[in-house]
Amino acid sequence: MVKVLFVCLGNICRSPIAEGVFKDLIQKNGLEDKISCDSAGTAGWHEGQLPDRRAIKIALDHGIALAHKGREITAADLDTFDHIVVMDESNFKDVYELYYKTKHSNPAAEKLFLLRDYDPNVRGIKEVPDPYYGSELDFEEVFHIVQRSNEALLNSLIEKHGWQHQAQ
Ligand code: 4NP
């Protein structure tokens, strides 16, 4: 089983959307027995909470129900997950520091990367913008960035592992 962890700051906006979208793609491609995912925040402020209501709404508008409960990333996650996918440079730095603090080896080459490394439409800074202090339009933008990036991420995993999958 390939395990993917999506990480943002609060784990109530971007990463739960990414988790919900990726789970939907996994299911649509019939890959539930090959790949799984979860999400976490670099901060534990929203431990146990459902996603932000605007995140729940934008996902539901696209047919995806979010049921994740907020949690902070742990050192154990660094071992459990094969791919740790962060939303912005600040998340990258925080997870990178967690690796060093917990005496893990350099993660950058093998499993830590920015989601927008996979965005076919990315221009300039490769970050998923934080919508927390923004509007519903910002959540819509996040949803579309996450959707196209996750499709590319899943396709790259399908290709890498030579998985058979159902056509969309
Ligand atoms: P997220 O957004 O990292 O995409 O979940 C945020 C959620 C909460 C806060 C900041 C960003 N906050 O300051 O509580």
Task: Characterize the structure shown.
It is a single chain. This protein has 168 residues and is of the alpha/beta class. It has one domain: Response regulator (Rossmann fold, 3-Layer(aba) Sandwich). It is 41% helix and 12% strand. It contains 5 helices and 4 strands; from the N terminus they run E-H-E-H-H-E-H-E-H. Strands 2-1-3-4 form a 4-stranded parallel beta sheet, sandwiched between helices. Strand 1 (2-8), helix 1 (14-28) and strand 2 (35-41) form a beta-alpha-beta unit. Helix 1 packs across helix 5 (136-161) and helix 2 (53-61) crosses helix 5 (136-161). The structure holds 4-nitrophenyl phosphate. 4-nitrophenyl phosphate binds next to loops.
Quick description:
With 168 residues, this protein is of the alpha/beta class. The protein has helices spanning 14-28, 53-61, 75-80, 89-101, 136-161, and strands at 2-8, 35-41, 83-86, 112-114.
Number of domains: 1
Computed over alpha carbons, the radius of gyration is: 15 Å
Structural class per helix/strand content?
A: alpha/beta
In whole angstroms, how far apart are the ends? Answer: 22 Å
Query: Biggest β-sheet, characterized?
Result: 4 strands, parallel
Approximately what portion of the residues adopt beta-strand conformation? 5-15%
Please name the CATH architecture: 3-Layer(aba) Sandwich
Uncertain runs with pLDDT below 50, 5 residues or more?
A: none
Mean pLDDT: 94
What bound compounds does this protein have? 4-nitrophenyl phosphate
What is the overall silhouette?
globular
The CATH homologous superfamily name equals Response regulator
Report the top-level CATH class. Answer: Alpha Beta
Discrete helix count: 5
Number of strands: 4
- What is the helix/strand order? EHEHHEHEH
